[in-house]
Design goal:
Strand content: 25-35%
Number of helices: 3
Mean pLDDT: 83
CATH topology of one domain: Alpha-Beta Plaits
Largest sheet: 4 strands, antiparallel
Radius of gyration: 22 Å
Shape: elongated
CATH superfamily of one domain: Ribosomal protein S6/Translation elongation factor EF1B
Low-confidence stretches: none
Helix content: 25-40%
Length: 137
């Protein structure tokens, strides 16, 4: 069966348990139609780049699935009809990557306190700016 990855954004008004309940609900819809959820991740509440339906934030969820196209179409149809789901993105992939998604790896790095890319001394980047101040007129 084809492999898919889905990202879903739900309304910020929902609690964490309600958002995770939606993941389980759509997983059962998929399994009832002959597919299966390989892995699901709840990414939490994140700020969006622009407002969607007057919401600035949303609950993000990620699903890796193995399902026939008809099951994915039915799940997407129900997602788009659901009032709490704001956006859905589905991508067909050749193979699922092992381990957590890039979003969860980023969160793990933050939890450990790692800082990506030490900037070091910035003094040498700018060169001499001249010692004199310009007067305003």
């Amino acid at each position: 069966m084809p492999l898919y990855e889905h990202v879903m954004i739900t309304r910020q008004d929902l609690s964490n348990t309600q958002a995770e309940g939606l993941i389980e609900h759509f997983g059962t819809v998929l399994s009832d139609n002959g597919g299966q959820v390989i892995e699901s991740e709840y990414w939490g509440v994140k700020t969006m780049a622009y407002k969607i339906n007057k919401n600035r934030k949303g609950h993000y969820a990620y699903l890796r699935t193995d399902a026939p196209a008809s099951a994915v179409q039915e799940m997407e149809r129900l997602m788009r009809l659901h009032d709490d789901v704001m956006r859905v993105l589905t991508i067909k992939v050749d193979a699922h990557e092992e381990g957590p998604s890039a979003q969860m790896q980023k969160r793990d790095d933050r939890d450990r306190g790692d800082r990506g890319g030490d900037r070091g001394d910035r003094g040498g980047d700018r060169g001499d700016r001249g010692g004199e101040r310009r007067e305003r007129r």
